[in-house]
Amino acid sequence: MRYQISGKQIDIGEALQTHVKEELGTAVAKYAERPTDAQVIFSRSASEFICEAVVHLSTGLTAQASARAHEIYAAFEGCREKMEKQLRRYKRRLKDHHRDREEPVELFGASSYILASDGEDTESEPDSLQPIIVAEMETKIPSLSVGEAVMQMELAGAPVLVFRNEGKDVVNVVYRRDDGNIGWIDP
Predict the structure, then answer these.
(1) Is 52 left (phi over 0), alpha (psi -120 to 50) or beta?
(2) 87, 31 in Cβ contact below 8 A?
């Protein structure tokens, strides 16, 4: 597994990097069969250290966790425990969904836009109905089953996931509803 361990405006030493590689590697290997890379970022907010970790699996799934503590090692341990808990919780699902999958999840290219809010009063009539595009970037849309999409959304902690449904070969959306349930849009 490839590691990218960095600090935002703080210096992290070799001892911490070695500790992260050993502990995170052990935790991820216990529950995920083929992790490809991990990104761990340490930062500081007032008197607390923040550790954010993202682990990509070869199946296309991404798990992420973060934790805060007054000591940097404690922040990492909290993050590692959250990551381990996520992967443990979904181990059966990961095995069930990916046992027969021989190749990684197929990804399709798409455009992603960030639209600017006009900041004006909502009561006034806009000059144009065209939104202002702040940024345009490329993104990848995975080809997943509905169960895999829900699992990916929960592992990533995302409120919504756009994916191509493997069964119907059309674009679908899963999202977390306000009542705590999962919504699925299948056009």
Answers:
(1) beta
(2) yes
According to DSSP, the β-strands at 48-57 and 160-165 are unpaired
What digits encode the pLDDT tens for the residues 78-131? 999 998 888 887 676 655 555 555 555 666 667 666 666 655 545 555 566 666
34-56 per-position pLDDT tens digit: 777 889 999 998 899 999 999 88
Q: Helices 72-89 and 91-98: crossing angle, nearest 10°?
A: 50
- The tokens 């059966």 sit on which residue? 92
Q: DSSP characters for 18-55?
A: HHHHHHHHHHHHHH-S-EEEEEEEEEEETTEEEEEEEE
Domains of the chain, first to last: 2-98 (3.30.160.100), 107-121+130-185 (3.30.505.50)
Phi-psi region of 134 (alpha: psi -120 to 50; beta: other; left: phi over 0): alpha
Distances (CA, A) of 136 to 97, 132, 133, 159, 163: 33, 11, 7, 21, 19
Phi, psi of 82 (to 5 degrees): -65, -40
The CA distances from residue 2 to 25, 59, 141, in Å, are 10, 16, 23
Q: Residue 164 is encoded by which pair of tokens?
A: 């191509």
Within 8 A by CB and 6+ apart from 49, the residues are 10, 42, 43, 68, 69, 70, 71, 72, 74, 75
Single-letter amino acid, residue 46: A
